[in-house]
Predict the 3D structure of the following.
Amino acid sequence: MRLIDSHVNLHAAQFAGDASAVLVRAREAGVQRMVTICDRMENALTVAEIAQREPDIHASIGAHPHYAKDHTWLTAHDLLAGLTPRTAGIGETGLDLHYRYSPLEDQLAVFRSHIQAARESGLPLIVHTREADAETAQVLTEEYAKGPFRILLHCYTSGGELAARALALGAVISFSGILTFKNAHDVRAVAAQTPLDRVILETDCPYLAPAPFRGRRCEPIMVREVYQAFAALRGLEEAEVAERVWSNFHRLFRSIPE
Ligand SMILES: [Zn+2]
């Protein structure tokens, strides 16, 4: 089976000591594509260098909503200026009202800059949304009306209504190891209903290790447990899930060769 981990944070300090061993393990388990995510513009170069070095890893560029307050200066032009041939997506960006590390108005402004960059580049917008269903749906809908862009809702934890509204805009939804968490009934309910041509999977490592690894550092090899959980939920063979995710991923991340 050829697996994909569509959202990894390989520049994180948790991987500083053994990143190459982590990648060897993942590849031996069949992980053939990864997208490593930029969380702050000051890390854009480091993230781009990982993608430059590793042929099966592409990069994103952007600023996480947690750090929006440090990126109020960020324009679409700045994001576009940072693109490299190995940049596959814009983000992660979005709205996080769970932690609220940045004021909502800063998160909104920075989110809109990313949307503009996604619209102009044609690269998918990698959206993080937590406890901000209505606000995220509103921004995506308003902005989409101004001109289309490609949407990925990553590490989905929101409700069915945001999912439906985003799917109507052509979005793809990515589910993480949260699918395996005992209490994640709502996430599984959305995953059970998402059209199979709109689903991809991820770990969001080093965070959110799936069961039975909860509490440990997550790494890309653990995406296997996410595939297993999704396959079980939908009553599918893992190999079929793997093929669908493979084609959905490449239809979304068009700049990544199959
Ligand atoms: Zn995120």
